[in-house]
Structure formats: C-alpha cells, structure tokens
Amino acid sequence: MARDIIDGILKFQFVNPQITFGNLVSWIASGAMIFGGIVPYIPQYLEIKRTDNADGFSTYVCLALLVANTLRILFWFGHPFELPLLLQSIIMIATMMAMLQLCTRVNILHDISTKKKRFVDFDRKHFWQWSHFVDYCFFMGTFSLVCGFITFLFSGNSIYVEALGFMAVFTEAMLGVPQFYRNYQNKSTHGMSVKMVLCWLSGDTFKTGYFIVNKAPVQFWVCGMLQISIDIAILLQVCYYGDKPYKKIQRVAPTTPIAEHIS
Taking Cα atoms as reference points, which of 62, 81, 83, 82 lies closest to residue 162? Predict the structure, then answer.
C-alpha cells in the first residue's frame, strides 16, 4: 500500500514536472492580477445596493476604466501581452458595467425630472449622465466598434499600436488625478478615505512589479510608476492638509431693488 502511494507520487511528479513552487507563486500572482482590480468595488456595490443611494460613487470612474480596458484589449491584438492582463481587462469591463447598471437603477428612483437623458440626444451637457443603462451600452458598443475598426485598419502600423497601448494605461493611470485636484481645491482631505488610497498604493506597487517581472510592454510599467507617484502625492496631501474640514465659500447674491424687477 505504501509502495503504491510512493509510486503514485513519483508518477505524478513525472507527469507534471511543471508544477513547482515558483510556478505556484506565479499562478497566485496571476490570479491576484486578474481579480484584484475589482475587489475595491465589491463593498461599494454592496453599499449602493443596501442604501439605494449612489451619490457617493462617481460613474466617471467607470468611464475611465471602461475606456482604458477597451483600448487595452484592442492593444492586445496588435501587441500580445500576458494573458492574465487580458483577462483582467475583460473582468474589469464586466464589473464596471455591473456598477453602471446598479447606479442607473438607483438614480432613476430618485430622479424627479420628467425628461429623461438619452445617449441618442447627443447633448454634451448630459454626457455620461444618462437615465437608462441601455444608453451606456450603446455608447460603449459604438466606442468599441469605432476604435476596433480603426485598429483593424492600422494594425500593421507599430506607431499606432504602441500609442494605443500608451493611451490605454495612461487613461487608467489618471484615475487619482481628480481626487488630487479636489484636495487641492478644498485645501483639505476631509471626507477622503486614507485606507482607499493606501489600497491604491499597495495595488499599484504590486501591479507595477508584476509588469516588470513579466516583461510587459513598457507602457504598462511606466504608467504603473505614474500611478504610484499620484498615490504618494495624495498621501502627502494628507500629511500637509490634515483632516480638517474645508471651508465652503458662501456666495451671497447681490440684492436687487424690487422696482427694477417691476420695471
């Protein structure tokens, strides 16, 4: 019996020589890359669903990630890279569409306006503020088809392909800029989750290291380092401004004599 077990182990190792500790670590790292990006949005999704309130979540985050990951997938056709990064983009797109579906469903419950905002209205003032989820699907479908067609035409142009990859990762790298600018305007970081920024920093550091170790295209790790720099800049704002509430400037409308209205 013991002999059979030993023979079975030896046979398993012989048939599967590729299963090593190094490969196991690599698979775990790949799994973290594929699913790690969506983890911060799970509690946000559950919170919105629990409270039926999406005011604390900016759907422009979804826009940036949808555009970035769509471009990254198109970049893969011109410059194939690590399969986990491709799967990460597909899963992130699905996650952002799920977030948009929930946000639009919740927002329409509180929308007292009789006129609904639609993508087909082509009104720039209401861009990405549409009333129905299907409008976001129309936009992303149109964007994907147009960019896909252009990529098909210029797939043999290395300059276009590399620029496409840079735009994909650069768009994602700019996610922290609105938060940095908001802190600068308010001269305060009050209301911002420091834990969230620390998660950004740890995740971006891991991601950039993964890019370098796996020899991903240069655009990936360069923009990864840019993300780390933005995360650190936001944390420096926390040290500089502190957590004191920012002061809102009250604007008083000028008084106008009633006679002027009458006349």
Answer: 81
Report the C-alpha gap between 116 and 130 in whole angstroms.
7
User: Is there a contact between 59 and 100 (Cβ–Cβ < 8 Å)?
Assistant: yes
Quote the CA–CA distance of 46 and 180 in Å, as a whole number. Answer: 26
pLDDT band at 47 (very low <50, low <70, confident <90, very high): confident
Whether 100 contacts 46, CB under 8 Å = no
> For the residues of 146-205, what is the DSSP string, one character each?
HHHHHHHHTTT-HHHHHHHHHHHHHHHHGGGHHHHHHHHHHT--TT--HHHHHHHHHHHH
Out of 130-134, 201-205, 210-214, 250-254, pick the least confident.
250-254
Q: What DSSP string describes 194-222?
A: HHHHHHHHHHHHHHHHHHHHTT--HHHHH
Predicted TM-score (pTM) of this structure: 0.71
- Structure-block tokens of residue 147: 């960019």
How far CA 197 is from CA of 12, 114, 188, 203, 240, in Å, comes to: 45, 39, 15, 10, 15
Quick one: 176 exposed, middle or buried, by C-beta within 10 A (0-12, 13-18, 19+)?
buried
Closest C-alpha among 171, 168, 107 to residue 135? 107
CB 69 within 8 A of CB 89: yes
At residue 62, what is the residue type? C
- For CA atoms 117, 118, 120, 123, the dihedral sign is positive
